[in-house]
């Protein structure tokens, strides 16, 4: 290639186009070899499979699902609307034109089983301003689906992929030339592909949970004006250049869980009872993070989220690289208000990456007891 002005943007655009073109070639394939390797057998198999339609729910909640699959592989149908919306990030006036899957940051958690087919209808309503798509880290081929799902406002598409790898995986928007901006504008979420026979510890024993929460961590880059006040905009497109300038400092103004400071604290806190086993899915589509449950532990942790690897046990803090979703499972042993944080404590307590779990039940003195309450030292 003699054109030396190829930028990273055009490289990715080229990859997307190559992916799309290869699909065209697949559709038009006439050779016996291609027919043997490509779609016919798969299409027949998929057509004969049972179909299940799942209504997605807003995080931190997760749609009802079986932990151990019943029956054989299914086609699991999901629908997501892309919604561009202005959201409040904190109580100090920071607003942001978010791009969202289904209206929330993060987008909803999808749950299927290994071997199932995920069939997503992705809708970009005419009220939106921008083109969007979706890249599933759990999918194989065509930019994770990004090359086949570019929908302009007023368009919809349907993508199907086979969930061949068990684990929790990020999905995110990835339009050529604007990937980072869309991802840090909130357009990401996660999918959990459970092994058909459920989660297992290192000895092969079933690990099940009583409830599951989904925490999506998001770094935001909100521009300020000359006086240091948060800037506001009338549309996502209008905010684009200023946000990119802040993005390139690699210094987020906000690092939050579930779309804003306090989204999972106070009245919005997660809840559990002593003796309950809770699974926490945690995704970060762009930056590294290090979850920690203050006063508890990670009983079973798949920090990089992939269930063919045995879980680590009894962890204090675990590391989730940017572009990854992880899973932690913990059985609560004491009542109280637990803080679940990114243990970069500046990001937790100054920038917002903190949640609460309110746990009810009886206190266990054997595990912890205040032997002497604070009193005057000289008394
Ligand atoms: Cu997008």
Overview of the structural elements:
It catalyses: nitric oxide + Fe(III)-[cytochrome c] + H2O = Fe(II)-[cytochrome c] + nitrite + 2 H(+). Keywords: Copper, FAD, Flavoprotein, Metal-binding, Nitrate assimilation, Oxidoreductase, Periplasm, Repeat, Signal. Residues 91-196, 212-361 form the Plastocyanin-like domain. Its main location: periplasm. The chain has 3 domains: 1-38; 49-196, Cupredoxins -  blue copper proteins (Immunoglobulin-like, Sandwich), CATH 2.60.40.420; 212-360, Immunoglobulin-like. It is 16% helix and 32% strand. It has helices at 8-28, 32-37, 39-48, 179-184, 236-247, 345-349; strands at 51-53, 75-88, 95-101, 110-113, 117-124, 135-136, 155-162, 167-172, 188-194, 199-200, 206-207, 211-220, 254-257, 270-273, 277-284, 291-293, 298-302, 312-315, 324-331, 336-342, 354-360. The strands form 5 sheets. Strands 13-12-15-19-17-18 form a 6-stranded mixed beta sheet, with no helix packed on it. Strand 10 and strand 11 (206-207) form a beta hairpin. The radius of gyration is 22 Å and the shape is flat. The site of copper (II) ion has 6 residues, from loops.
């Amino acid at each position: 290639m003699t054109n030396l002005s190829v930028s990273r943007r055009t490289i990715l655009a080229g990859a997307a186009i190559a992916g799309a073109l290869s699909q065209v070639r697949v559709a038009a394939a006439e050779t016996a070899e291609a027919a043997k390797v490509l779609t016919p057998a798969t299409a027949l198999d998929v057509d004969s499979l049972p179909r299940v339609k799942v209504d997605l729910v807003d995080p931190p909640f997760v749609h009802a699902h079986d932990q151990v699959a019943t029956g054989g592989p299914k086609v699991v149908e999901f629908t997501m609307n892309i919604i561009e919306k202005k959201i409040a990030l904190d109580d100090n006036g920071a607003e942001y034109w978010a791009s969202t899957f289904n209206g929330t940051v993060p987008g909803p958690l999808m749950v299927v089983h290994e071997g199932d087919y995920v069939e997503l209808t992705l809708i970009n309503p005419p009220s939106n301003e921008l083109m969007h798509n979706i890249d599933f880290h759990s999918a194989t081929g065509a930019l994770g689906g990004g090359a086949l799902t570019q929908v302009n406002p007023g368009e919809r598409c349907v993508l199907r992929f086979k969930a061949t790898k068990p684990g929790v995986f990020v999905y995110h928007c990835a339009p050529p030339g604007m990937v980072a901006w869309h991802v840090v504008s909130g357009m990401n979420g996660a999918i959990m592909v459970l092994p058909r026979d459920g989660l297992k510890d290192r000895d092969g024993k079933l690990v099940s949970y009583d409830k599951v929460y989904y925490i999506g961590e998001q770094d935001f880059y909100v521009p300020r004006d000359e006086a240091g006040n948060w800037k506001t905009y009338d549309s996502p497109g209008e905010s684009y250049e200023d946000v990119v300038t802040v993005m390139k400092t690699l210094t987020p103004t906000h690092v939050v869980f579930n779309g804003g400071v306090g989204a999972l604290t106070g009245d919005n806190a997660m809840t559990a009872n002593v003796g309950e086993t809770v699974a926490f899915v945690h995704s970060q589509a762009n930056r590294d993070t290090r979850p920690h449950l203050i006063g508890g532990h990670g009983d079973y942790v798949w920090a990089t989220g992939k269930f063919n690897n045995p879980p680590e046990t009894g962890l204090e803090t675990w590391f989730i690289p940017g572009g990854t979703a992880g899973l932690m499972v913990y059985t609560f042993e004491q009542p109280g208000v637990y803080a679940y944080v990114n243990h970069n404590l500046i990001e937790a307590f100054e920038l917002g990456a903190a949640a609460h779990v309110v746990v009810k039940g009886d206190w266990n003195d054997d595990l912890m007891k205040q032997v002497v309450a604070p009193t005057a030292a000289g008394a």
